[in-house]
Amino acid sequence: MAADPKPDWLCCLPSSWSYGVTRDGRIFFINEEAKSTTWLHPVTGEAVITGHRKTPDLPTGWEEGYTFEGARCFIK
């Protein structure tokens, strides 16, 4: 199955926003007017593809990840 050429999160980006992708596949958003970036979608407030995982026992906006050394960490 081919990837969706225009996913939902891309369709609803405000006009002054664009996105980028890091080498490890994480998506970030660029506010062209404010010259700033964020990991969170400007409309939904959620991360799109982070390389980390969300779990139901974490507060909204938090994800669980691991350092390169294997230590568990939490990311907001």
From TrEMBL:
CDD domains: WW (cd00201). It holds the Pfam family WW. It comes from the Eukaryota. InterPro entries: WW_dom (IPR001202), WW_dom_sf (IPR036020). Coiled coil: none annotated. Residues 13-44 form the WW domain. PANTHER family: PHOSPHOINOSITOL 3-PHOSPHATE-BINDING PROTEIN, PLECKSTRIN HOMOLOGY DOMAIN-CONTAINING FAMILY A MEMBER 5. This is Pleckstrin y domain-containing A member 5. It comes from Xenotaenia resolanae.
